[in-house]
Design a protein that fits this description.
Blueprint lengths: L3 H4 L11 H16 L3 E8 L2 E11 L2 E8 L8 H16 L4 E6 L4 H9 L3 E10 L4 E10 L20 E9 L6 E5 L10 E2 L2 E3 L6 H13 L9 E10 L2 E10 L14 E4 L14 H10 L1
Parallel strand pairs: 3-4, 7-12
Antiparallel strand pairs: 1-2, 2-3, 4-6, 5-6, 7-10, 8-9, 8-13, 11-12
Helix pairs in contact: 3-4
């Protein structure tokens, strides 16, 4: 950090950068982590500190920042670390968007932000401690839609739409709450909430697919007799058309657990609309809320 070529591009870093300030900063990052105000993570390779990447949280938005030590420039560490952190944040935290900024002459940082899916969002000013004053900055933002997405299913010819059959289930507990699962990082539409379920394999019935998926994803056992057909969704996504029957289930054995690392939430019917969902799931919410 005690390098002018690093410090000059960081708004909150003084120059020179004294050793005791590093100790205070590390202590502060742990305190902010405990309070849920931000994440400051080391970028490391073979035991050597490459740099840092972090998030500062502001309600449903977060500011992304990072720096790379001079001897590691040009090796792709900034894009890899910042991109990974951005993807994780939007898939895991209750955030609507990510923000970032860069000085107009900081071409490396601008290139990194564009590469990982950030879009330009105007200009502004920011106080730079190392430069003892306000500087013009370019602002950037990213949402789940702007970040790179996993490839979608291959589109079929226009004369033969690619129909993707997915079975979903609204698990309802004794208190009338409905289970939602959050799509984990690495999947399309990561960070959005949905009804548990999955693809129906060739030769498989929707009920059999749900029994399999609920066991694999949640660790519970369900019988076909406990799955009640409720309604369905039909939605055109780029490259394929989704057909998704939704079942209701009030009885199962086992304890509901996110076996694939996905976040789970038991939600009151009137609160379902507060959770961002994939477009195909959204029309199901009103029907389910009115029924329950």
């Amino acid at each position: 950090m005690n390098d002018w070529d690093v410090a000059k591009n960081l708004a909150h870093v003084p120059f020179p950068y004294p050793r005791d300030l590093a100790d205070r900063w590390i202590a502060d990052t742990l305190e902010r982590l405990d309070k849920g105000l931000g994440y400051s993570l080391a970028i490391e390779r073979d035991g050597a500190l490459v740099g840092c990447a972090g998030l500062t949280l502001h309600n449903d938005e977060a500011e992304l920042g990072y720096w790379i030590g001079r001897r590691f420039w040009g090796q792709g560490f900034g894009a890899e670390a910042a991109g990974r952190l951005a993807s994780w944040a939007l898939a895991t935290l209750p955030l609507r968007r990510l923000n970032a900024q860069a000085l107009p002459d900081n071409v490396r940082s601008i290139a990194v932000l564009r590469r990982i899916g950030f879009l330009e969002d105007g200009e502004g000013e920011a106080e730079f401690v190392s430069r003892s004053g306000a500087m013009r900055v370019l602002r950037f933002c990213a949402t789940r839609d702007s970040l790179p997405q996993p490839p979608a299913p291959v589109a079929a010819p226009p004369s033969a739409p690619n129909i993707l059959l997915v079975a979903a289930c609204a698990l309802i507990d004794p208190d009338g709450r409905v289970l939602l699962a959050r799509r984990p990082e690495g999947k399309a539409m990561a960070g959005l909430w949905e009804f548990p379920g999955g693809k129906v394999h060739p030769g498989e019935t929707p009920e059999a697919a749900l029994i399999r998926e609920l066991h694999e994803e949640l660790g519970i056992d369900v019988t076909a007799a406990c799955l009640g057909p409720f309604t369905f969704a039909s939605h055109a996504y780029p490259g394929f058309h989704l057909l998704m029957p939704l079942y209701l289930c009030r009885r199962w054995t086992g304890t509901v657990t996110g076996r694939e690392g996905q976040a789970l939430a038991w939600v009151r019917p009137q609160k379902l609309a507060d959770y961002p969902m994939p477009p195909a799931d959204v029309p199901l919410v009103a029907l389910l809320r009115d029924f329950l």
